[in-house]
Structure formats: C-alpha cells, structure tokens
What we know:
The complex is a heterodimer of chains A (about 475) and B (about 100).
Chain A: H1 3-11, H2 17-35, E1 38-41, H3 43-58, E2 70-74, H4 101-108, E3 112-117, H5 151-158, E4 164-168, H6 175-181, E5 184-187, E6 208-212, H7 215-225, H8 244-247, E7 258-262, H9 272-287, E8 291-295, H10 303-318, H11 339-350, H12 353-366, H13 372-395, E9 398-402, H14 418-422, H15 429-433, E10 437-448, E11 451-461, H16 466-483
Parallel strand pairs in A: 2-3, 2-4, 7-8, 7-9
Antiparallel strand pairs in A: 1-3, 4-6, 5-6, 5-10, 9-11, 10-11
Chain B: H1 10-19, H2 26-43, H3 80-85, E1 89-90, E2 93-94
Antiparallel strand pairs in B: 1-2
Helix pairs in contact in B: 1-2
Amino acid sequence: MTIKKAAKLLQEKQISAVELAKAYLEKLKQKEPELDAFLHVCEKQALAKAEEVDLKRQRREKLGFLAGIPYAVKDNILVQGMQATAGSKILEGYQASYDATVISRLKQADAVIFGKTNLDEFAMGASTEQSAFKTTKNPWDVSRVPGGSSGGSAVAVAANMSLFALGTDTGGSIRQPASFCGIVGLRPSYGAVSRHGIISLASSLDQVGCFAKTVEDAAIVFETIAGKDGFDSTVSPKAFYPGLSEKITKTLDLKKLKIGVPKEFFELGIDPDVKKLIESSIDWFMQAGAKVQEISLPHMKYSVPAYYIILPAEASANLARYDGIRYPLSKRGESDRGFREIYFKTKGRGFGPEPRRRIMIGTFCLSSGYYDAYYSRAQKVRRLIKSDFEKAFEKIDLILGPVSPYPAFRIGEKINDPVAMYLADIYTGLVNMASLNGLSLPCGFVEREGKKLPVGLQIIGKHFNEELVLATGHQFERGHAALA
Amino acid sequence: MLSVKTMITLEQVKHLADLAHMELSETELKKLQKEMEQILDYISQLEEVDVSGIEPVAGGHELENVVREKDAAVSFGFDENMLLQFPEKQGDYNKVPKIIEK
C-alpha cells in the first residue's frame, strides 16, 4: 500500500477514510508494543478527522490529495494541543500552542494524524536510543536500532503503522533511519521547507522532511509541505514546486544524466557488503546509460568534526530557552534562592547525557579564547566543504553514494562511545553542511545473523533541485526493483 | 588549538557548566570531563586544514535579509494552551522570580 494507491481507493470510494484509519490503527496496536515507535497515539482525533473526510467526500466538498491518509509526526514538530517533548524530560508536560507550518499544510490537505513519534533527545543522535523515554526497535531485527534521530517516524512507516511520517534531518536523521528501515527518506534543501514550529536543534542545519514507502509518495508529501510561509525567513523563493509529484513520474532520459561518485566515499571504512550494494546500484545507472564519473570532495573527512563544532555551538544557544521559566518543567531547591537556581536545577535535571555533552562542547567552542580556534575555524571549513560541492556540481547533476557505512547496528553497541555514534554521520552530515538535499532509498539487503537488513542508496542534489533527485530516485526504484 | 592529547581540567568543565547554567554533581562533571576530552580530541582534527584567506560561512544558501512591511505584524492572539505551560501563574501572567534586587 502506498499513498498513491490509498488515495485512489478513497477517491473511488472503494474504502472509506474511517475504514483505512481503523485498518492502520489495528496494525499500530499489534506492532507498537514490540517496536515502541510512538510517544503519543491520538486514536480519537484520528478517527474524528477520518470521519470529517468521509463527510466532506459525501457532500462533494473539495478535498486535499492527502485526504484520509494516516501519518505520524516526530515529537519535535508542533501539533497544536498535543505534546511536543523533543524526546526530553525537560519538555515533559508541554503542550504545543500552535501548529508547525508543515502541520497546518497537512491539515489543510486533510491528512489524518495518528500521533507523535519517538526520537533521540532534541534530535541529537543516530539510533533513537537516546530518547529520555524509551528505545525504538528496528522492525527487521528488534535487537537492532532503527537509526536516528527520527527512528520512531521511520518505524511507523516501515512497520505499516502509517502511510507516511515527518522527521527532521540535521546531520542525517531522516536519511539514516530510512536506510536502516528499508524505506524512502527525503532531506530537502535547506530553505525548501519552513522550520516554523520545529523545535530547533541547529538553525543553519535543520530541515524538515518525510518518510514514505515510495519516492513518488515522498514527492507528494514534500510538495504539500514545501515553500514560503511568511514565518521562516530562511525559506527561499526558489522553493516553489507546483506539480512536482506528477513531474517526477515522467520518464527521465538517463543517458543525459551526469552522475558523480566522490572517491573519498570509498576511502573511508565502509562495510564490504554495503559497498557491494552501492557499487551495483551505481552500475545500474551506468547500464541505463547515465554518465558516471569519479569526482573529489577533498574536505569530506573534515565535515563530521566541523559539524560537531557547529551543531553543539548552535544547539547550546537554541537549548538555552529551557530554563524553567516558560516551559512546564521547573525545578526549584528547598530554599528559594531566585531565578538562577531555577535555571541551574532545571537544566541540570532536565537534560539527558547527549544534550549535556553537546551543550558543553558548544559552550566551550563559543567561549572567549576558544571561539576563533574552534567555531570560527569550523565555519571556514564549512565554506571549503560548500565550495567542494559547488565545484563538483559544475560538472555533474547528481551525486551517488552510501547513506551509512554499515547496516543497522545492535541496540547498546555504540551508546557508550559518543564519537563512534558521531561517525554514523560520515556520509550524511556533509550534505547539511553544504545546505543541499539528499534522498535515501532502498537498494538491497545484507544478511547479519540470519536476518535481512536493508541498505539505502543516497542521491544528493543541487540546491532546490529536488525534482531531478526525486525523478532519478523514482526511475531507480522502478528499474532496480525489477532486477531483484 | 589544544594539541594532540586534548586535556580539559575539571575546573574548566565546572566553569563551562556554570556558563551553560547547568547544575551537575561532581560525578557527572568528571564523566563529562572524560567525554569532552574524547570529543575535543576528535574535533581538533580541523587544525590540519589550511584555512588561510577563507571567509567563515554561517550556512544556508543565498540567504537574503527579509524585512517586514510597516504595520504588517501578525498577532498570534492568546491561546489558553500557553497559560497551561507556565510553571507558575497569576491570572494570565507567568509568575517569575525577582531579578532586580533593591
């Protein structure tokens, strides 16, 4: 089942929105106890919306294309009246007072929200193990992680508990879980989708995106949520995609496509089975007539260290607001020694281990005496990474490569080694640093201890060129699957 | 830049926790000290890069400043939900501790 198929069934009245919602809610109830993807399920609200859709259809009122389609939302995206914990105790009890732009657009499109999904605390992580509430499991092997930080959303789609889901991707947090869970994940260009109503992690790296079963489905959701909204001044006027989801299904002439594969991608440690799958995917493009050439991104190996200066610095500023004054969690001592005590105790008790680490690193990198050597330097390296891509894109249209150096790892495997966890971003973080877009789509499986584990292929595109990225992905999805 | 085996003292860690307004126990601070050393060691790789003559970039792509039209302010209105979030309230107001001492 896909959004496209479900929408057709609904439009042709072969199934009602309530029936569809009930079927998916049934699956959710079956799978959720084992997988732990959701932090909050809003069954009543979902059924009420589905009823509304059916009534509108009966009355022949205009309905959005996503009418009646069930979806899940990462818990760092605001849905009015619902919780938004960002996976942290510091926001426990907080209820959103407004809808994020992406949510109000999906509400207008009459989609049916099922609930809020689990994430690494404040979207900091690559496994969803660092949620303050629980760990989400990979449906392909429940002893393994689903990836992160948008693990809950990825699992909601992979385990058929929703037809699509929203996530955020600051360093790979949509693409990597998509790869680990065998589904499609789109991280749009920075400035393509409004961040109004998204709990900020790193304001120059964050972007909202989506998970879906197919590339076409992802395109449908992206088209619905993208574009200027008057609230986020970083959204570009170039982020204008009318009719995108239809355009990308038109057959692309792959012979005209110029693809680059960075040589640095295979110079780093990559699992040999994953490497084989990526190479055979690139091979598929060559067989189809695309012009594949080796390119170089000379500063690639510095992207993760630079990222782990810039992100903590920006996060330390963005997380300063959770001070026990405006949001429900507010810790005071026995003797009321004033506001400073509230700040110190609230943050000390409210933030988990990873936000603590990153706030501390960020504070260090921005502090007097270290600002130039760390933060300023990282920003210069960022410019070098950006120009590496600019130079590459002069000769090619798209970049292909892995999403992750390995398939889903075991729960607990990397949790005690922060730097090992950071290295998960090796193929994804550089895209965010250059403000580009990246698509992860399934390209095969590896076997680990008798279980099949999915692997994703990454397609990286120029700023606001999601159309080409999605069209290419769509063609690969159709052609490559035919060989399986 | 701090060199090869990056050292950060417990005093420095305490100072940073202070700047970040986080109250942490001695055990938590010591744990952070070790973790920060690992992380700082990793990020210090950037020392190798020749950045002479390179301008820092703040991120984004072709960002332009957006100026609001005069009198075009949008009021969010007052949502009851917002009141629910205040840890302490008095009527419609968020009750906060005194900042200015006489």
